[in-house]
Amino acid sequence: MVEPGLKLFVDESSNRGRQYPTDVGTIDLLFVRPNGDMVVIELKRFRGSDEVVGQISRYIGWIKHHVAYDKNVYGVIITHQYDSKLKYAVEGNEKLTLKYYRIHIEFVDEAQVKSQQ
To answer: Which of 57, 95, 101, 115 has the smallest C-beta neighbourhood within 10 Å, fewest atoms?
Structure first.
């Protein structure tokens, strides 16, 4: 849903790209594009901060050096709240993208749930 064609990365040791361990921290999600370029995704559940730009840049650098080698590595920060500092920090790096999410919860009665089965 973040980008068409992304596939979850799996390394030669069968480590999957969800909570991917590195020497510089744990990457929330790590994907591969159809062309082989890699995408690091950092999820921020709480208020975004431009500090996350340093964090995701560290992950991008590590992946570039240890996993991607000659492929490009991009970063996507996903948060739910607008933060102008984060916006400008991301705009300063062409390999970073900022996306937002919304969560919608709807309360329904039993009859509505049964009718959807």
So the answer is: 115
Q: How far apart are CA 15 and CA 28, in angstroms?
A: 13
Please, which residues have CB within 8 angstroms of residue 38's CB and are 6 or more apart in sequence?
A: 9, 30, 31, 32, 63, 67, 68, 71, 72, 73, 74
Structure tokens given for 25: 């921290």
3-state secondary structure of 25: strand
- Residues 57, 58, 64, 65, CA torsion sign: positive
Nearest 5°: the CA angle 12, 14, 15 is 105
Residue 117 pLDDT grade (very low, low, confident, very high; cuts 50, 70, 90): low
Cα 65 from Cα 63, distance rounded (Å): 5
**pLDDT interval class at 81 (50, 70, 90):** confident
Q: What is the mean pLDDT of the chain?
A: 92
pLDDT at 46 over 90: no
